[in-house]
Amino acid sequence: MPAPWLLPHTHPTASGDVRWNVLGDPGGPPVVLLHGTPFSSYVWRAVARTLAARGHRVFVWDMPGYGQSAQYEGQDVSLGAQGRVFAELLAHWDLPGPPAVVAHDFGGATALRAHLLHGAAYRRLALVDPVALAPWGSPFFRLVRENADVFARLPPHLHAALVREYLVSASSPGLHPAVAEQLAAPWLGPVGQGAFYRQIAQADQRWTDEIEPRYGELSLPVRILWGEDDTWIPLERGQALAARIPGASLVPVPGAGHLVQEDAPAELAGALLEFLTEDGGGGTTTTA
């Protein structure tokens, strides 16, 4: 039976309590993993344990409104709020030096906003299929965002089916049913159903429009990893993003869709370990 994914620590924020955990050697170099939407830190479990086993001190957390963190009516779970919360959480951890940051999907925008707008310092930054360049949002995502109040009133069984199908569509080979259930669980029930549509309703492109002109200011090592079979955000967007960030390199991940952590965890962990331990961290853009 797989080990449970627990976040035993709590940090209060203006957007509700954030649940977090740390794995690995207390003296190891710090690495922080950020999840995207509609996911949680659960998607990082294999990668987090691999990095921790290789000597890193790995921090994981669920954004407000997601996973094991607080969910409530009227909650601000926008990218604007998430960037501020992440900068605050880094200050709370009081790390001995800037961490390496690995961010997926909306977590990418969160990490970029915290760095560019809120002064969060990173040693290096890995972006995994990030939300970063306009336009973003699939036709389904936009439909839900424009009609969030209607979708929030779906009968629970229809909502549950929609959430599961949406989650599975992020994977190229498909998710194991047990994994799909774990990812869907925070979005079910009266509280979870409202939270699911709340975070989509607040997903405004203006949060990335605000920072997109500043990507050329990034002066730290940046690695961009992208599932070759990503149907949510195609590989071409990764190529465009790499061209906007000085010295950034792009590493396509074969056989993986948007949810690279589930589709190719070993390949992703290997690429991250290489990036986290190399002298540089930049390089030329590759399109294998």
UniProtKB/TrEMBL annotation:
InterPro entries: AB_hydrolase_1, AB_hydrolase_fold, Carboxylesterase_BioH, Epox_hydrolase-like. Residues 31-270 form the AB hydrolase-1 domain. Pfam families: Abhydrolase_6 (PF12697). It comes from the Bacteria. GO terms for molecular function: catalytic activity. This is Oxidoreductase.
